[in-house]
Design goal:
Structural class: alpha+beta
Strand content: 25-35%
Low-confidence stretches: none
Largest sheet: 5 strands, mixed
Order of helices and strands: HHHEEEEEEEEEEEE
Strand order of the largest sheet: 1-12-11-6-7
Mean pLDDT: 92
């Protein structure tokens, strides 16, 4: 995978101006330096499974980087939701910048809604938390949720660091759709790129 990334970057580097070459090298160095710490932060239970999960994470990081370098927009990721807090049980989405995102269904609330925990590990350039990018959708029904006080808008998660915040989706009881097969919690930095169902 690294060889494919190098090959794709070399083609861009060869035709780039000196300033563009400097930018390419800086981005590559930052991503490569953050890749292992991101995976170590995501999987740190202390068990032997962490090594296996971290290796899989490194491959996910590299796949996302290769798509970004090639300018490929991957299809929307369909991920499995869970109420487990074990990082090895979570379904992780990897952004093109190398940040990792997971969702945990933590509890119901008094309104028939749900409190969801979002887990972020900052990639090479960190990750800026915008709670408006994390919402529930079922067809035309949308619940933007209410961020808990622990979810400061525009907080920057540093590279290789984990941050968790909660959003209370209190309007789920008003979802008019009986069939929930298309429902899920979305991460949408613009267009939706990942949904946990």
């Amino acid at each position: 995978m690294d060889a494919q990334i190098d090959f794709a970057q070399f083609a861009k580097y060869s035709s780039a101006s000196p300033a563009q070459r400097k930018t390419i090298l800086a981005q590559d160095s930052a991503w490569l330096a953050a890749r292992a710490p991101v995976c170590a932060a995501a999987f740190n239970t202390g068990g032997t499974i962490d090594g296996i999960s971290a290796t899989s994470c490194l491959l996910d990081e590299s796949n996302a980087r290769l798509d970004a370098v090639k300018g490929i927009t991957p299809p929307e990721a369909r991920l499995k939701g869970t109420d487990s807090t074990d990082p090895n049980q979570l379904s992780w989405y990897t952004t093109p910048e190398g940040s990792r995102i997971a969702e945990i269904n933590t509890q119901g609330d008094q309104t028939g809604g749900a409190v969801v925990a979002w887990v972020i590990v900052g990639g090479a350039n960190g990750f800026v938390v915008n709670p408006k990018q994390f919402y529930f959708q079922d067809g035309s029904f949308t619940d933007a949720g209410v961020p808990e006080p622990s979810a400061p808008a525009y907080y920057r998660v540093p590279a290789g660091k984990k941050f968790e915040f909660d959003i209370d989706y209190s309007k789920l009881g008003k979802d008019p759709n009986a069939d929930k097969s298309g429902a899920g919690y979305l991460y949408a930095p613009g267009a939706p790129v990942a949904v946990w169902a």
